[in-house]
Amino acid sequence: MLLADELADRRVLMGSLGCANCRERYPIEDGHCDLRPPPREGSDLSGIVESVPGDAVTLGALLGVTKGPGEVALLGRLASHGHDLAALIPELEIVCVGGGLREVPEEPGVSRLAAGPMLPFQSGVMRGVALLVSDDPLRLGEAARILARGSRLVALNAPAGTAEELGRLELELVLDEGGTVVARRP
After folding, report:
1. What architecture is the 56-184 domain classified under in CATH?
2. Residue pLDDT, tens place only, 141-166
3. Domain ranges (residues) in the chain
4. Alpha helices in the chain (DSSP H)
5. 57: alpha, beta or left, given left = phi > 0 and alpha = psi -120 to 50?
6. Rounded distance, CA 104 to CA 101, Å?
7. How far is CA 153 from CA 15, 41, 77, 150, in A?
8. Given phi > 0 = left and psi -120 to 50 = alpha, else beta, which region is 177?
9. CA distances from 180 to 17, 125, 132 (A)
10. Is residue 109 a contact partner of residue 84, using CB atoms and an 8 Å limit?
11. What is the pTM of this model?
């Protein structure tokens, strides 16, 4: 259940999300939602997400998404490309998941949230997912789980064996070159 205390252009800036199953409330402050399980106090979410090498044009090309509507998830440090990717692809919502996003300004086309190890999305809903495997290798399975049919998962800084792991997760290999692995959900 969503309780919106402050809205702007149909975007919730202040409020909370409530879970009917666990009876927990997850805060939304300045457009940033903290979906991590309690306790949230004392967790480090300060500081802007560190930029990573590469650019939004290359990331968009690897994702293969050229127009909206839909949602693409950028996980971890790749969230630093959220603004530029949203500017490139009209009507696409970029969902940035990671620490340090609370300090990033609210803007149309970019959703910011913190999450625990499990990503808070239904299976098969994202038109694309990108992550740095070196930052969080355990997120690879979660990234594959939320990927929609016909959509791509982009794994950067991918160690040897990533392509095989994505094959075990029932994704088809599109590219495996120099630490970049791209796979598609058939």
Report:
1. 3-Layer(aba) Sandwich (3.40)
2. 999 999 999 999 999 999 999 999 99
3. 2-35, 56-184
4. 56-63, 82-88, 139-145, 162-168
5. alpha
6. 5
7. 31, 32, 16, 10
8. beta
9. 35, 23, 9
10. no
11. 0.86
